[in-house]
Design goal:
Helix content is 44%, strand content 20%. The radius of gyration is 12 Å and the shape is globular. It has 80 residues and is of the alpha+beta class. A three-stranded antiparallel sheet has the order 2-1-3, sandwiched between helices. Strand 1 and strand 2 form a beta hairpin.
């Protein structure tokens, strides 16, 4: 599970994948539907899980909150 941020669009995106480096390449080349608005996405936060279903549950949990403050809290905690 990951959170990426685009400075040019001032947006966060929450997703999950197996290979974060490959996934970020797709985000930054406009090949991802929801992130094609920008090409400067940077990984700000990650969590690892034992299964894809666990990662999807966590992704949905974060998205369900619909809270930029919560996402920024996670990112800030990760940087500390």
């Amino acid at each position: 599970m990951y959170i990426i941020y685009s400075e040019s669009s001032d947006r966060y995106y929450v997703g999950q994948c197996q290979d974060i480096s490959e996934r970020i390449k797709r985000h930054n080349t406009g090949r991802s539907k929801y992130t094609k608005i920008a090409i400067d996405w940077k990984v700000k936060y990650t969590e690892k899980f034992g299964s894809r279903s666990e990662a999807m549950i966590r992704e949905k949990d974060i998205k369900r909150k619909k809270s930029r403050k919560y996402i920024e809290f996670l990112v800030k905690e990760n940087e500390a």
